[in-house]
Amino acid sequence: MSIVTGTKLGRYEIRSQLGAGGMGEVYLAHDPKINREVAIKVLPAMVASDEQRLKRFEQEVQATGKLNHPNILAVYDVEAHDGAPYVVYELLEGETLRGRLRGGALSTRKAVDFAAQIANGLSAAHAKGIVHRDLKPDNIFITNDGHLKILDFGLAKLIEPISNVNDQTDVLTRKVNTDPGAVMGTAGYMSPEQVRGRAVDHRTDVFSFGAVFYEMLSGRRAFHGESAVETLNAILKEDPADLTTTNPNIAPALERIVSHCLEKNPDRRFQSATDIAFALESLSNATSHSSLPTVTEMSAGTKWNRERMIWIAVCALLLVTASALAFARFARSTPPNATVRLALATPDNATFPARVTISPDGSLVVFIATNASGKRVLWLRPLNSTVAKQLEGTEGASSPFWSPDSRYIGYFANKKLLKIDASGGQPQTLCDSAEVSGGSWNADGTILLPGLEGLYRVSAQGGTPKLTTKLGPREEAHRWPYFLPDGRHFLFLADAARKEDHSIRIGSLDSQETKALFSGISRVAYAAPGYLLYVNQGSLVVQPFNAAAEKITGDPKTLVEHIAEVGMNHEFDFSVSETGVLAYQTGDPNSELIWFDRSGKKLGTIGEPRNYGMVSLSPDGQSIAASLMDSDGRVADIWLLDLKRDNIATRLTFEPSMEGDPVWSPDGRKILFSSTRSSSGSIDLYQKPAGGTGDDQLLLGSNAAKFPTSWSRDGKFIIFENWALKSQGALWVLSLSDNQAKPLLQSTTYDQFQGQISPDGHYIAYTSNELGKWDVYIQPLALTGEKWRISSNGGVMPLWRNDGKELFYITTEGALMSVEITTSPKFEGGVPRQLFQANMKSINQGWCYGVTNDGQRFLVNTFVQNLNSAAMTIVLNWTTDLKQ
Fold it and tell me: What is the DSSP string of 494-544?
């Protein structure tokens, strides 16, 4: 029975009835104590005697009473009247979201604004262990000032260890279209697990949120049949129509957020409402009540789209400069279609930023930097924020790439392919991966990655990689895959030993056949509406490309000069989003050969800055052998620098191929090196007199890639790396008396390389990843079975002091380390200690440092430009410059 006007419920005076439903009647009332209007929900006496309904009503009170959030209906008081309990709520003025949607779809800006408020409210509820379980437009209220309030936690369930999970088992037997609050969910907005009658958690609200968000954007329900049964069946088996069929201006990134909410499997959805809020915040730096359009409208091609690009750029600059006045002036004076460039600095507690990678939706940047503990980890920064956060658990990360929905980051570490949620959490290992030269992720959940025989594919959920492309004649590897828009075809670099054999190629998931697009040696990326981006002779260039026809359609144009190369195998530092955002980092390819003492004090520089690669100090310390690269990294030659004659440089090799890895003979008269000059494309071992006279002599040729690392003090044998196809890296020994080669250290499960013979010829120091990361080891050259790990926290490039009593190596973070070595009466390695941090050009391509015989001075191949002080550059609306 309705309560008449003027009735007192405790101190509250009833003014009028506002509505009624299965869970009770709602009244407008006056609270004289605070002198405010309130809403009161009364459970009728006839229902209060129903134990189940009373229990659910009490549950609503308990749940809602725990919440205090601007997007959740506030509870003021709980009392009883004539045996009927009632709850006092804040009074709202406005309309339900259902009422608003009767006018059709909302604007994209308004829908995103409302969605962000809903996500924030759900996040607060979930943080208290409360699940709504009946989120729908009828239970979302829009106040007159634009605030959203989530109503009716009558179905909320406090998440705790559950002894009885059968409350949901009869969902399918219940009538669905009943009064609000009378059922455990509403058809059309229920999650698949609710439909199946299974126990639910907070992810059921994520699904319902997705259904509501879809309806706000499209004006129609995500799941709707002619009957409740057909609707429930659609939830279980069907996907809603693409949002772009009703609104072509919906940005792909926004549609991916909705789709990610509506995954049938809870494990594949956003794992929390906080994640949703983070994704929405990344799309727009507008507040819930901003009059500015959101980033999701960028794809509309309207005036708002262009202006919003400028606003984002300006906001990012403001956050750095903290100048609101400058923002207003900039917004008024900048043309709406202008290209805008931002400089993103490195976090204060990080050094050496590298491999800046923009998310597909253009809102997030991930990059690699060394943290305060000296670990290379991934960092994430939204473009609308000045703060970059470290992604925990990503130590040793390299070559990051994004999932197409901008939710996950794939990367390589410790011979594994992993992924991590951009919002945080623990990384997930997907598969083993000895190669680290890039990955690409399509919308179907397939990831391409490099391997020994070509490119492989693996599910984004993990599994065993399957061969997708096969190496062609004279090709060394397939690297840097990049999916084209159809998600089936992809670009990649076919790396080769000889300059003329490198190419950018296109492949398909449907066939192992590939075709060449053009000659190049770089990572390559596709950018909408039809461009290829790659590096040529150190400059980032853009070239028109028809992806459907798989054809180049115009001439290349230079965008940026001196793009930084930040890793092995042509890993240039640039990235592009689907929304017209370009990210890159520049760097001088040249380096300097600098002398340092043991404390890291600079003692002097040798010669002029040049594009040096590996270096080797002669036995007498009077000469340097170094590889010098050409402008695009396709050709290198060995040069000698005479320290006795004012560092005069003399060219030693002259072939149009890659010459590298110089090693001096113990008497200083010959130089051993690797070369790709063979017509077969193999990498073979050669030697040449250090004086430059005489021909190059082939020492060992075979199909395997071979790199010399050490020459025994007695001159009788050479240690070299053998990287045969389908095998791990191994150390072999070449006898110079009979020119016979045989394995020394090799394994079927891990790599062993960078071998260095001790001065007394009894031990070999080398690098191995048998524990999943690079470490330096020593074992007897006689292979007695003994072995000692020398590095304590990762290391590469071991070098002996001339008397064998000290070993040096470089950590994977670039610190030069020292370890004392004792061999009598037994072998013993000391505790590693850091000498200094070396700004070395590369720690991946071989020895980039040398040490004098007394161990007091170090020659280091050092960056000309210290990347620690370099800023990452972000360009908004970068294609505008192409039209000028």
Answer: EEESSGGG-EEEEEETTEEEEEEEE---S-EEEETTTEEEEEETTEEEEEE
- Please give the average per-residue pLDDT across 57-66, as a whole number: 68
**Residues 6+ away with beta carbon under 8 Å from 264:** 192, 236
Distance CA 124, CA 66 (A): 10
pLDDT over 70 percentage in the chain: 83
Complete edge-to-edge strand list for the sheet that includes strand 440-441: 440-441, 446-450, 455-459, 466-467
Alpha carbons 849 and 594: distance in angstroms, whole number: 9
Least confident of 91-100, 149-158, 303-312, 650-659: 303-312
- Domain count within the chain: 5
Per-residue pLDDT, 868: 42
- Which residues 6+ apart lie within 8 Å of 650 measured at CB? 639, 640, 641, 642, 692
The reply to whether omega before 70 is within 30° of 0 (cis) is no
Pair of tokens at residue 677: 């000059």
Q: Which of 217, 211, 283 has the alpha carbon at shortest distance from 247?
A: 217
- Is the model's pLDDT at 860 over the cut of 80? yes
Are 532 and 624 within one domain? no
Helix, strand or coil for residue 151? coil
pLDDT band at 459 (very low <50, low <70, confident <90, very high): very high
Contacts of 190 (CB under 8 A, 6+ apart): 171, 204, 207, 208, 232, 235
How far, in Å, CA of 569 to CA of 352, rounded? 19
Residues in the chain: 884
**Helix H or strand E segment including 96:** strand 94-96
Tokens at 684, concatenated: 């073979």
Residues 282-334: tens digit of each pLDDT = 665 433 333 333 333 333 333 333 333 333 333 433 333 333 333 333 333 44
Confidence of residue 512 (pLDDT cuts 50, 70, 90): very high
Q: Are 875 and 340 in contact (CB under 8 A)?
A: yes
Helix, strand, or coil (residue 10): coil
Domain annotation covers residue 337: no
Cα 421-427-428 angle, rounded to 5 deg:
100
Query: For residue 819, what pLDDT is reported?
Result: 97
Model confidence at 410: pLDDT above 50: yes
Helical pair 203-218 and 273-283, crossing angle rounded to 10 deg: 40
Cis, bond preceding 662 (omega within 30 deg of 0): no
780 in the same domain as 697: yes
Cα–Cα distances in Å, from 419 out to 255, 372, 415, 441, 570?
22, 23, 13, 11, 23
Please report, for the domain that includes residue 473, its CATH number: 2.120.10.30
In this structure, is residue 750 part of a structural domain?
yes
- Helices 203-218 and 252-261 meet at what angle, rounded to 10? 140
- Overall average pLDDT of the 505-518 stretch: 94
Q: Indicate if the alpha-carbon torsion angle 346, 349, 355, 360 is positive or negative.
A: negative
Can you name the residues that pair with 348 across neighbouring β-strands? none
Q: Which domain holds residue 223?
A: 97-296
CA atoms within 13 Å, Cβ hemisphere of 609: 9
Kind and range of the H or E element at 411?
strand 408-413
Number of H helices, E strands in the chain: 11, 61
- CATH of residue 49's domain is 3.30.200.20
Mean pLDDT for 387-413 is: 92
Across the strands, what pairs with 535?
Answer: 540
Which two tokens mark 43? 């459970």
